[in-house]
Structure formats: structure tokens, C-alpha cells
């Protein structure tokens, strides 16, 4: 084998490990007896955090974490920079003045930083080496008063080109902003499409939105619609470049939270972790294809799967947003919503808007349909009290290992293993907590055996009688990538 052939193989393997551009999940067997793809730790991870607040009364915390034993190089670094100061690798070597907002130096221990007021910028995070596999950053903002008062939490996300947001709104009492953040050195061009109960909401303003390099653009959804729509589905497509996208929703009476992108359209969906004390839950669904969808609604409760009375099914017309108020669907027990086709499977996207509290002391959060935990998933910024971890096994029973990291300011990791019975939700109001905890910590979920598991974390921090809370789902952290073995017969390359 000549040097050119060896170099080409090395480039292919390195590219797969760095970009993560490959399938995740089970290992496929190639034809003609070729060896299956090998799982390798990713070597670089990028995450983007949206602008947290426009209020002087806001307090924001950031927590970054990489699970220990993730593999990869022993070295590496992870840091968050203001997007406007993010530089290319070459420029960064020349400019040592780019001071990071937050730096993580080793896996296994989370680090935290804080920001106050309305001057907090969007952040771009990059982790490489041993800190890249499974790197997670949580952004949590508390508003003491004003529209949207309450707790707004979100996982900082990787840039992409396609996002679905069922559950958005242009209602008069709502202020929903889509935050578009561009991490790259060239401009991104983004289209924003809105779909209401009768079809697409026509708006030329949502076409060709320019997001300049290393910048973030907030767009008020009501400026893209001809009238008020209580329930909308939004589709964000980057025509050129990449962006991160997240919706910040504020309500005059019901508080607010971040609405993250839902899982890609699928025939069956899981929305995990409806709080046991939820006073109302609204389901919003959309079928992007050419066919209508008929969905069966089930609640995975602590004891089994049940059908909510009066809400047995939902018909979703093609290209139109459907919404249904489920009321206090959990009836005092934590649960997860399962959506399955009544007949032929038709891809849909869906999300829940969940409310806790009553009267003037209500607060809301969003639970989008999410992917399964897969090999491993992590959520950061858990507190000594107030964290509830919900695990649901919709098909078969599963055993799950849950690990609490060390604390940001001290404490020793702790691990427990749980069994989640088929068709049930296990809500852990007392998940593992580090011994001698100081600060906040991360929870890592790893299925051990059995069927697929879905998960979410609710962080609840009541203040002045208001049940402030936020919910984050836990899809697979994509800490590994499949890198195919090179074929032995490379005669074409050798020529």
C-alpha cells in the first residue's frame, strides 16, 4: 500500500471522528463479509447558547459537563465564548485576547458561570479531545418579575440546517422569539415557515433572513403572521450555512420558558416527564407530509399505560397544526405521553405546553417529542433539591444506570441502577446526589439492558409562591461516531 493510499484512509477516519457525520445506534454489517463499523469517540463538539434575556432583572447560570470515561484523547479543552468574539482556529492562535466566558479543563466534574441583566450575549462553545464526547451545556435563567417571569432553561445545541417547533404562538398574551445563531465565518440564509390550523401562514418577511457570521438574530414571530394564532408549528430551514435555533416564549400571565426543537417527524413519538402536579397540558402536533395522521394518545403512568378519558385519539390534517387541551391529564401522578398511529404510520412532530400552579401563580414549560436516550445522555445544572428525573420505557422493561457527577464546588459522584417497567414512567424525585455536594451537578443516564428508554429532567425552584420550573429532554449525547473500516482492495486508489 503506497503513502497516498494510507493518507486517504487516515483522512476518511479522522473526518468521521471529528464531524460525527455517520449513523448512531446499532452497528450495521456490511456486504461481502466486510467488518462492521467501529465506534470511536468524537474528537470535537460545538454547541450554541442563545441570548438568555432582555431583562435587567434576569439572572443566568451556565453549567458545562463531560461524563468521565468518555474516551478520546486524555487532553483537550472546552470553553464558551461570546459569539461576537468567536474566531476561526487560525485567528484564535494569533489573538490571545479572546477571553472565554467559561472554561472546562477535565471530564467528570462540571463547571459553572453566571451572568446578570440584559447584556448577556449568545455563546458559542467548543470542546475537543477527551472533553468532546458527550459534552453538555445547560443555560438556566430566572426572571424575578415581568412578562415571562419564572425559570427559562435550555440545553445549548449543535448547529444544524433543519428544525421543527410545534407549540409556538402569536397569541396576544404571548411573545415568542426565534433566536437564530450563526457560529461560522460566512453568513447564513434562513427561511422561517409558520403553519396554523388551516395551513401555511403566508409571510414574505420570513424568507431569506440573513444571519451574519458570529452573530445572533432574534425574530418576533408575531411580525411574521397576519393575525394572532394561539397554536402554530414553525419550520426553520437554513438555505445556506448552519445555525442553532430555539424559541423563547413569554406569557403575560403564565410565565414562560424555552421551546426547543422537537424530534424529527416520525410515526410514533414519546413526550416524557409530565409533572404529577400539572394543572393543564396542551398537545400541539403537525403532519408535514402529504397524508393526514391519526394518532392514538396514551399516558405511560407509574403503574402502566392508560388512555386519557375523552382524549383517546387525535386527527392531524396534512399541512395543518392540530391542538388539544388535555387538562390535568396526569391526575396527580407523573406520566409521559405516547403517540402512536391508529393505522398506517404518518410522520408527525409534536410538543406539549405544561402548566403548574393556579390563578396568578402559574408557570409553564415545554416538553417536545424527543429521541431515546440511546447509549447515554446527560443533563447539567441539577440542584440539591428540586430535580425530578423521569424515565419511560414505552415498549419493554429496561434497567438504567443513573450517575450523579461531582459538584461544581465539591462532592463525590454517586450511582444507582433502576428498573423501568414496560409501559410506565419512573419519576425520580430524589435522583442520586453527590456525597458532600457543593454547587450544582450533572446527571448521566445509561441504559444497561432491555428496551429503549426516553427521559427528561424537571428543575423546580419555587419563588414567592410561584412554582418556577423548566423541563429538558435527554436524547442520546452522540458521544461516539461509527467510522467504517476501510476496504482492503484499494487498487483504484493505488493507480
DSSP helix count? 3
Mean pLDDT: 88
Tally of strands: 38
Radius of gyration over alpha carbons? 22 Å
Major sheet attributes? 5 strands, antiparallel
Could you please describe the fold and organization of this structure?
The protein has 495 residues and is mainly beta. The strands form 10 sheets. Strands 10, 12, 13, 14 and 16 form a 5-stranded antiparallel sheet that branches. Strands 19, 21, 22, 23 and 25 form a 5-stranded antiparallel sheet that branches. The chain has 3 helices and 38 strands. The longest helix has 17 residues, at 3-19.
How are the SSEs placed, and which strands pair?
Blueprint lengths: L2 H17 L18 E4 L2 E6 L8 E8 L12 E5 L6 H6 L7 E3 L6 E6 L6 E6 L7 E8 L6 E6 L6 E7 L5 E9 L5 E9 L2 E3 L7 E3 L3 E6 L11 E9 L3 E8 L3 E5 L9 E6 L3 E9 L6 E8 L4 E2 L6 E4 L4 E5 L9 E7 L7 E10 L2 E8 L8 E6 L4 E7 L4 E7 L5 E3 L1 E7 L3 E5 L6 E4 L2 E10 L3 E7 L8 E5 L6 E4 L7 H4 L1
Antiparallel strand pairs: 1-38, 2-7, 3-6, 3-8, 4-5, 4-7, 8-9, 10-16, 11-15, 11-17, 12-13, 12-14, 12-16, 17-18, 19-25, 20-24, 20-26, 21-22, 21-23, 21-25, 26-27, 28-35, 29-33, 29-36, 30-32, 30-35, 31-34, 36-37
Q: How would you sum up this structure in a few lines?
A:
With 495 residues, the protein is mainly β. The protein is built from three helices and 38 strands.
Distinctive features:
five-stranded antiparallel sheet, 5% helix, 495 residues, disordered N terminus, globular, mainly beta
Amino acid at each position: 500500500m503506497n503513502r497516498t493510499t494510507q493518507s486517504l484512509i487516515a483522512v476518511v477516519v479522522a473526518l468521521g471522528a471529528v464531524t460525527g457525520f455517520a449513523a448512531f445506534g446499532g452497528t450495521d454489517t456490511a456486504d461481502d463479509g466486510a467488518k462492521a463499523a467501529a465506534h470511536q469517540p468524537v474528537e470535537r463538539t460545538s454547541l450554541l447558547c442563545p441570548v438568555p434575556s432582555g431583562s435587567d432583572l434576569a439572572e443566568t447560570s451556565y453549567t458545562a459537563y463531560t461524563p468521565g470515561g468518555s474516551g478520546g484523547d486524555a487532553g483537550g479543552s472546552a470553553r464558551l465564548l461570546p459569539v461576537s468574539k468567536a474566531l476561526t482556529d487560525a485567528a484564535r492562535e494569533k489573538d490571545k485576547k479572546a477571553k472565554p466566558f467559561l472554561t472546562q479543563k477535565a471530564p467528570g466534574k462540571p463547571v459553572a458561570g453566571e451572568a446578570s441583566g440584559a447584556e448577556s450575549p449568545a455563546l458559542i462553545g467548543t470542546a475537543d479531545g477527551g472533553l468532546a464526547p458527550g459534552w453538555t451545556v445547560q443555560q438556566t435563567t430566572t426572571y424575578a418579575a415581568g412578562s415571562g417571569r419564572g425559570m427559562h432553561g435550555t440545553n445549548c445545541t449543535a448547529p444544524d440546517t433543519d428544525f421543527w417547533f410545534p407549540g409556538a404562538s402569536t397569541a396576544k398574551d404571548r411573545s415568542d422569539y426565534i433566536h437564530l445563531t450563526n457560529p461560522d465565518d460566512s453568513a447564513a440564509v434562513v427561511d422561517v415557515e409558520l403553519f396554523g390550523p388551516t395551513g401555511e401562514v403566508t409571510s414574505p418577511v420570513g424568507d431569506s433572513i440573513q444571519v451574519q457570521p458570529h452573530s445572533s438574530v432574534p425574530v418576533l414571530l408575531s411580525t411574521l403572521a397576519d393575525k394572532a394564532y394561539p397554536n402554530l408549528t414553525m419550520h426553520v430551514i437554513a438555505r445556506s450555512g448552519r445555525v442553532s435555533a430555539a424559541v423563547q416564549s413569554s406569557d403575560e400571565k403564565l410565565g414562560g420558558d424555552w421551546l426547543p426543537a422537537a424530534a424529527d417527524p416520525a410515526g410514533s413519538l414519546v413526550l416524557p416527564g409530565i409533572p404529577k402536579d400539572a394543572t393543564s397540558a396542551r398537545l400541539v402536533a403537525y403532519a408535514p407530509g402529504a397524508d393526514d395522521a391519526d394518532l392514538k394518545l396514551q399516558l405511560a403512568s407509574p403503574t402502566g399505560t392508560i388512555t386519557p378519558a375523552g382524549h383517546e385519539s387525535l386527527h392531524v390534517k396534512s399541512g395543518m397544526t392540530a391542538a388539544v387541551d388535555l387538562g390535568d391529564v396526569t391526575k396527580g401522578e407523573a406520566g409521559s405521553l405516547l403517540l402512536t398511529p391508529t393505522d398506517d404510520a404518518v410522520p408527525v412532530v409534536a410538543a406539549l405546553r405544561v402548566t403548574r400552579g393556579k390563578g396568578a401563580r402559574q408557570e409553564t414549560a415545554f416538553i417536545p417529542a424527543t429521541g431515546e436516550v440511546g447509549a447515554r445522555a446527560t443533563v447539567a445544572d441539577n440542584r440539591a433539591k428540586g430535580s425530578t428525573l423521569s424515565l419511560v420505557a414505552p415498549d419493554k422493561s429496561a434497567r438504567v444506570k443513573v450517575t450523579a457527577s461531582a459538584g461544581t464546588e465539591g462532592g463525590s459522584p454517586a450511582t444507582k441502577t433502576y428498573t423501568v417497567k414496560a409501559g410506565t414512567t419512573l419519576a425520580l424525585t430524589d435522583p442520586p446526589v453527590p456525597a458532600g455536594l457543593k454547587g450544582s451537578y450533572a446527571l448521566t443516564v445509561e441504559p444497561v439492558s432491555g428496551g429503549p428508554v426516553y427521559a427528561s429532567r424537571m428543575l423546580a425552584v419555587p419563588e414567592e409562591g410561584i412554582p418556577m420550573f423548566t423541563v429538558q429532554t435527554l436524547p442520546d449525547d452522540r458521544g461516539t461516531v461509527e467510522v467504517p473500516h476501510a476496504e482492503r482492495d484499494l487498487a483504484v486508489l493505488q493507480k
